[in-house]
Amino acid sequence: MSYQLENTQRGEKYNTIFSKVSPAKRRNRTARAHWRSRLLLGLYLALMILPIYWLINMSLQTNSEILGSMTLWPQNLTFDNYIGIFTNSSWYMGYVNSIIYVAMNMLITICVALPAAYAFSRYTFIGDKHLFFWLLTNLMAPPAVFLLPYFQLYYSVGLFDTHIAVALAHCLFNIPLAIWILEGFMSSVPKEIDETAYIDGYSFPRFFVKIFIPMIRSGIGVTLFFLFMFSWVELLLARTLTATSAQPIGMIMTRTSTASGIDWGTLAAAGVLTIIPGILVVYFVRNHIAKGFALGRT
């Protein structure tokens, strides 16, 4: 009782002190806090954007200017670095190869992960939790562990230096990740929806495609974002399992280092072009990503 009385007296004391503060001072304090938060946000964005700006700045300069004095913007603006990439088949085919095997991996992974995640979400079977944990253990191993087995297997069956080889290799990591993310979204959907659909005469494929998948489209958007992010930036498997026909852009970018030095301008231009597909993916699934981060397992 005395504790409650003491808290009440303390609250009344604070209310009395706060009431003595004039409305003008309260507005000034609110305005200062508002501008302080804006300043911190602006500083954070500047630190995040600075490397990208510097990369773009270098891509529009010549090597002599890059290696010379530091400049905040190109003194002699040039697009030769971009022209050299788009006119050289070995360069732009690197982007094509990367996009092909990333798209193949995303398609294969989502087609396998959707029914698997539904099974983990809706059914109980012997060893379900152990199997689910075993799938997640694949994410704990570095890609270098599976490098030699994949290389020998693909070379013996004739899949070496093909897009499907890299796509299937990335499935080892992306399928468990996709199942883990999608299972969280599917578990949030009430099971009564499944039962109601069956009562209404829906077959399972029709229910799954027309009713269930639209209900978890935010989860699918988040999953596709993570699948793209891993497969697009992964270089070790993509570099080892390809030679000439399916080389990714990350492997081709290493060619800028020669005995005469590094072609900094071309390397910067290639880096700028590498960022663009990621920006496009984020733009198209931005609404699903925002909703998925709020609702799902991520």
TrEMBL record:
TM region(s), chain numbering: 35-56, 99-120, 132-151, 163-186, 207-233, 264-285
One example of a Gene Ontology biological process annotation: transmembrane transport
UniProt-listed SUPFAM superfamilies: MetI-like
Cellular component, GO, one term: plasma membrane
Topology in the lipid bilayer: Multi-pass membrane protein
Domain ABC transmembrane type-1 span(s) in chain numbering: 95-285
Keyword check for Transport: yes
Main subcellular location of this protein, as a coarse class: membrane
InterPro entries noted in UniProt: BP-dep_ABC_trans_perm, MetI-like, MetI-like_sf
Cellular compartment(s): Cell membrane
Keyword Cell membrane: yes
PROSITE patterns: ABC_TM1
Alphabetical UniProt keywords: Cell membrane, Membrane, Transmembrane, Transmembrane helix, Transport
Pfam families: BPD_transp_1 (PF00528)
Top-level taxon in the UniProt lineage: Bacteria
Family according to the record: Belongs to the binding-protein-dependent transport system permease family. MalFG subfamily.
UniProt protein name: Sugar ABC transporter permease
Source organism per UniProt: Halomonas campaniensis
Upper classification of the organism: Bacteria, Pseudomonadati, Pseudomonadota, Gammaproteobacteria, Oceanospirillales
